[in-house]
Amino acid sequence: MIPDITRPAGPGEFGPAEAGALVRRVREGDREAFLALTRAYQKKVFALAYSFFRNKEDALDLVQETFLRLYQKIDLFREGRNFEAWLLQVARNLCIDHYRKNYVKRREMEVATPVEELPIADARAEGEIHLSDLKDVLSRCVDQLAERQRTIFILRHYDQLKNEEIAQMLEISIGTVKSLHFKAIQNLRGLLAPYLGYET
Asked: Is 134 contained in some domain?
């Protein structure tokens, strides 16, 4: 069982040699070694997950899922790598996957930026579609974006994160964030065109 993240933290992060030794012990079935890794890194995993979801319960679920995945996939860790970076990448991938599959569906009517203020509107489209319908159409169109465009659009307009925060979270440059967001907006305009009654 993974320790409760609300309890006091255990020892701090381990150096490469220590982490490698613990990984070897986990592979041999040592439960205490697994718990030691969990105690050392669970708060960093929680912080990453919380930055995605801004919701404690979802973040805690992702912590549990990350360490379950760690236990299942421990053989994929190559000794000599930075264990913390590898673990956080596992967590980040799970966060993105969870966000894509579940989170938007639950929050599709809770876009932080009002739909009428999103940079996808067209003055010619006023009156063509009701706002309540537009929210549903927008959600379906967002689902059709390429994965990285969709993720960045969600983080920008659902969670109101800044470009710098998104870049740090996804480990990409700010320029890449801006480029992918621009492409997302352009593609959404194209996807929405039939519903809004104008040509791209």
From this structure: yes
- Domain presence at residue 132: yes
Domain count across the chain:
2
Give the pLDDT confidence of 87-139 residue by residue, as tens digits. Answer: 988 998 898 888 767 655 555 545 555 555 666 655 444 444 555 566 777 87
Q: Decide if 104 contacts 143 (C-beta within 8 A).
A: yes
Residues 123 and 188 in one domain: yes
What residues of the chain score a pLDDT lower than 50? 1-11, 109, 123-128, 200
Beta strand extents in the chain (DSSP E only): none
Instruction: Tell whether pTM > 0.85.
Output: no
Structure token pair of residue 64:
């549990």
The residue segments making up the domain with residue 69 are 16-100
CA 195 to chain CA centroid, nearest Å: 29
Q: How many residues does the chain have?
A: 200
Residues 47 and 30 sit within 8 Å (Cβ to Cβ)? no
